[in-house]
Design goal:
By secondary structure, this protein is an all-beta fold. The chain has one domain: Chondroitinase Ac, Chain A, domain 3. The chain has no helices and 11 strands. The strands form 3 sheets. Strands 4, 5, 7, 8, 10 and 11 form a 6-stranded antiparallel β-sheet that branches. Strands 3-6-9 form a 3-stranded antiparallel β-sheet, with no helix packed on it. It is globular, with a radius of gyration of 14 Å.
């Protein structure tokens, strides 16, 4: 998935699904955020559940070892819920995905150019 020249990867283990599925991922970035970078992922078919977690590998300007959070949209609560916390390694944050929903990554960026994933 290419967004603004940055490549995210979505990897599904061979044993993660009982049958073959067509997977569609739409990636959007909020270009109007001043102090943060907001990236949304919409996965289809909605509600798909994996027997083994898939992995979303997301490129980030955060430094190796910094923490980054992934959120998923809970329709029942109408709120973003924390899904996973990971640490940046080699310029990427790798998140487990156990089901399809809408997901969001919010990176806080200070005025001095420093980033913060919390």
């Amino acid at each position: 998935m290419d967004l603004d020249g940055e490549i995210s990867y979505f990897t599904v283990p061979e044993q993660a699904l009982a049958k073959s599925n067509t997977i569609v991922v739409t990636v959007l970035r909020d270009q109007n955020a001043v102090d943060r970078r907001i990236t949304d992922f919409h996965f289809e078919p909605e509600g798909l559940v994996f027997d083994l977690p898939a992995t979303l590998s997301y490129p980030t300007p955060l430094k190796d070892g910094e923490k980054l959070l992934l959120y998923w949209w809970d329709k029942d609560r109408e709120a973003w819920m924390e899904s996973a916390v990971t640490f940046v390694v080699g310029g990427y944050a790798a998140f487990p995905i156990t089901h399809f929903s809408d997901y969001r990554i919010v990176e806080r960026i200070s005025l001095g150019g420093q980033s913060d994933g919390s």
